[in-house]
Amino acid sequence: MKKHLVIFLVIMVGMIGLSSLASASTLDEIKERGTIIIGTDATYPPMEFHDEEGNMIGFDIDLGNAIAEELGVKAEFIDTAWDGIFPALDSKKFDIIMSSTSITEERLKSKDMSDPYYQTSQAIAVRKDDDSIKGPEDLVGKVIAVQIGTTGDFAVSEIEGVKEIKRFDTTDKAYMEVMNKRADAVVNDYSEVSFRMTLLPNMKVAATFKEGEDIYGITMRKGETELLAAINEALAKLKESGKYQVIHDKWFVTTGN
């Protein structure tokens, strides 16, 4: 009888242990491994991009490291193409996405997103010698280059009468299309466009629109309530301490954002 009781207790302890592992939250896993894994599409200066040595740098990178520090862990960034970044999150290749991701009703249907941490507008970039586009209404009859699945893509899709929307997997290819005169304009977030103009002397910002409507949030899988609360708390602390402003000014003061 005692032998059977001991076996029963061993089985119960094992089941409890397995149950605890199965119910461990993503936040628990992050703290256990000592690292938060962050997905980003590092083709989007000044938010996330590579320096000349191949290191990932940018506003989101610095902010991600600061959030990790608040959580008591290190940050590890995984460079992932934008068109595959959400499926990669769903398959648990990383814990969160920090990649200039706008908070939209459609995304909130399948993902949780943090409190806003950056606000911007849409911008139209054209060749410097082109004065035909002064606002979104002038995109009618034009060929527009965008990065697929971005809010720039969505914004242009709303404009009736656009001749053609050329969609690319990176913003670099969209700009190249305009510089090679195969498209008339690029539409993208002003945060990216304004910085990009410092690197492309033959292009300019023709106009901005949807002023302040593009609001970035940190993305995670639906139902990650503990992680969401921890991320929001970290963001709040960084803003209160002034660390957020230091990071912001490092990347944006010179470009007027």
From TrEMBL:
GO molecular function: ligand-gated monoatomic ion channel activity
Localization per Swiss-Prot or TrEMBL: Cell envelope
Main location group: other
TM region positions: none
Stretches assigned to the Solute-binding protein family 3/N-terminal domain: 35-255
Keyword list, A-Z: Signal
GO cellular component, one term: cell envelope
N-terminal signal peptide: 1-24
Entry keyword annotation includes Signal: yes
InterPro entries noted in UniProt: Iontro_rcpt_C, SBP_3_CS, Solute-binding_3/MltF_N
Pfam families named among the record's database cross-references: SBP_bac_3
SMART domains the UniProt entry points to: PBPb, PBPe
Ionotropic glutamate receptor C-terminal domain boundaries: 35-254
Family note: Belongs to the bacterial solute-binding protein 3 family.
Protein name per Swiss-Prot or TrEMBL: L-cystine-binding protein FliY
Name of the coding gene: fliY
